[in-house]
């Protein structure tokens, strides 16, 4: 079966953008703890009439002045843009899961417990006491919710998304 312009097909994931209060600390955390690759060092983008300046004004509206950004890549080639905006604000509640929008991202590591400990050692925290098993006593599929040192919510899965959910994780 061929895809026509009217047929949907599963798009691949290109990248995510994460806001942090300290770009250097975030680059250090994500490269040293999660092992992501730095592919573009921290750079300052300024509100001006350059191509990137105009594109950012289209996105943010006028008056954003400047921000810093670094680009990383995961082991499966998904890009991660890390932003540090001036006047960055940490919300009182960084886990407003009931509001529309993205409330977490998930990484995969077969040793959920070790990565969770490494995140805590680097200044992050656990949002659950211990990993949860999807099929206790039957399959080793585990997960845990965490926070990075900047309050961004991340989850760790032990196995692929497809393995966990194609087995009927909620049955």
Automatic annotation (TrEMBL):
Q: Which Pfam families match?
A: Glyoxalase (PF00903)
The UniProt record lists the VOC domain at 12-159
Report whether Lipid metabolism shows up as a keyword of the record. no
Which Gene Ontology biological process is one annotated for this entry? L-methylmalonyl-CoA metabolic process
Q: Does the keyword Hydrolase apply?
A: no
Keyword annotations for this protein, in alphabetical order, are: Metal-binding
User: By its UniProt entry, which InterPro entries does this protein fall under?
Assistant: Glyas_Bleomycin-R_OHBP_Dase, Glyas_Fos-R_dOase_dom, Lactoylglutathione_lyase, MMCE/EMCE_epimerase, VOC_core
**Which residues are the signal sequence here?**
none
Q: Which domain of life is it from?
A: Bacteria
GO function terms (MF aspect) = metal ion binding; methylmalonyl-CoA epimerase activity
PANTHER family (UniProt xref): BLR8189 PROTEIN (PTHR43048:SF6), METHYLMALONYL-COA EPIMERASE (PTHR43048)
Q: What is this protein called?
A: Glyoxalase
């Amino acid at each position: 079966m061929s895809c026509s312009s009217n047929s949907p097909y599963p798009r691949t994931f290109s990248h995510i953008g994460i806001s942090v209060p300290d770009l250097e600390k975030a680059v250090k955390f994500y490269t040293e703890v999660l092992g992501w690759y730095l592919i573009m060092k921290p750079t300052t983008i300024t509100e001006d009439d350059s191509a990137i300046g105009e594109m950012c004004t289209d996105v943010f509206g006028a008056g954003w002045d400047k921000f810093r950004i670094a680009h990383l890549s995961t082991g499966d080639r998904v890009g991660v843009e890390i932003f540090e905006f001036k006047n960055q604000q940490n919300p009182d509640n960084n886990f407003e899961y009931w509001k529309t929008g993205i409330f977490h991202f998930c990484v995969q590591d077969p040793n959920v417990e070790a990565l969770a400990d490494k995140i805590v050692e680097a200044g992050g925290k656990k949002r659950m006491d211990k990993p949860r098993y999807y099929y206790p006593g039957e399959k080793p599929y585990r997960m845990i919710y965490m926070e990075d040192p900047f309050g961004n919510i991340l989850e760790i899965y032990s196995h692929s998304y497809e393995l966990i959910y194609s087995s009927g994780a909620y049955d």
